[in-house]
Amino acid sequence: MHTPLPYPGPDTTGPTHPHLDLLGWDATWAAGLDLATEPGPTLVGRVCRADAGACDVLVPGPSAAPDVVAAPWGPAVRRAHRADPTAAPVAGDWVLLTCDPDAAVAVAEVLPRRTAVVRAQVDGSSRGQVLAANADVVAVVEGLAPDPDPGRLERLLALAWSSGAEPLVVLTKADLVPDAAARAADAQTLAPGTTVLAVATPDAVGLDPIRARLAAGATIALLGASGVGKSTLLNALVGGETMRTRGLRSDGKGRHTTVTRELHLAPGGGAILDTPGMRTIGLAGADALDDVFPEVDALAADCRFADCAHDGEPGCAVLAAVASGELPERRLASYRKLLREAQHQAARTDARLRAEMTAVWKQRTRDYRRRPDKKR
């Protein structure tokens, strides 16, 4: 039995809707409804948890507090998923829900995403995996105790930059080290152009800039490995209990926040997209590497050859900077490693696209040959 729609739907004739605003809705999303194709009565909601074939959706309730409905994918969403797995609803997505006369809710359409955190599939698939959708800020979380992992920080920053959202570095456990400011300064050299915050969540130290973003209505996605303090940070920002209305679920049970991707509303506004700790972080593309390693990109402009790979070519300005100490050798090694992975993933994706196009043209040829007007 599906939960009946508790609210008849938003008035999208105006720029915003007050109850939807609590979920991150704004005038741009309202304008984006022109792209929706689902006819008939619909309700706008935001996915807070997604499973195979269904998802939990936050929808405006009769009061300011949102409700949660469990909604399976509708036919159009299932077809889109078969064609492209990344089209399936994920936490953070805005969706259109339809309701039949028996009050059965279904996800009719996923609205186009503004941003998406996408990593390469761990199984070697040529298609990416969407970790979070429509985040305004992607916070890379790394612990100061033990020392931050530079390579992991750079890798996660590449995901953050490629998402289209604002990258942010949050260094947790500042209360466990004597030189948090110095370590944050070291991390800043790995994250040029990115704000770096050192926080001590037990004492709420350093959290004000994050809370200010949330209060302005931002959705912040948390990325990080297990054990870096993401769950503690989440609890500090949303309180000991999340603002999801779990009482509406049929089983009455909560879910562990660190084993799935889930959206939580913050008490003062905004939302947090929590993701599970990641052991493997594959890159789906190389576009963001220039943002993560801007000094390499700047130095490359002075290389003798435009296609210099910075691997022994004469007149390489990047290697010259390493030799002089201007560019740390570790940074160049990290850049090369991430670039190789991204290029390998791009090659797999290109091969899949070529195969799909070949299949399309073969089918068109077969259909043409079967046409009744063709002479036999």
TrEMBL record:
Domain EngC GTPase per the UniProt entry, residue ranges? 133-279
Source organism, top-level taxon: Bacteria
Q: What is its EC number?
A: 3.6.1.-
UniProt keywords (A-Z) are: Cytoplasm, GTP-binding, Hydrolase, Metal-binding, Nucleotide-binding, Ribosome biogenesis, RNA-binding, rRNA-binding, Zinc
Please, one GO biological process term? ribosomal small subunit biogenesis
Pfam hit, one: RsgA_GTPase
Annotated residues for binding of Zn(2+): C303, C308, H310, C316
- Uppermost EC category: hydrolase
PROSITE patterns noted in UniProt:
ENGC_GTPASE, G_CP
| One annotated GO molecular function | GTP binding
**Gene3D superfamilies, from UniProt?**
P-loop containing nucleotide triphosphate hydrolases, Probable gtpase engc, domain 3
Q: Tell me yes or no: is Cytoplasm among this UniProt entry's keywords.
A: yes
Q: Where is the CP-type G domain?
A: 119-281
* Protein residues bound to GTP: T172, K173, A174, D175, G224, A225, S226, G227, V228, G229, K230, S231, T232
Where are the coiled-coil regions? none
Entry GO CC: cytoplasm
Q: Which SUPFAM superfamilies match?
A: P-loop containing nucleoside triphosphate hydrolases
Q: Identify its protein family.
A: Belongs to the TRAFAC class YlqF/YawG GTPase family. RsgA subfamily.
Q: Which NCBIfam families match?
A: ribosome small subunit-dependent GTPase A (TIGR00157)
Listed HAMAP family: GTPase_RsgA
According to UniProt, the name of this protein is: Small ribosomal subunit biogenesis GTPase RsgA
Specify the species: Actinotalea fermentans
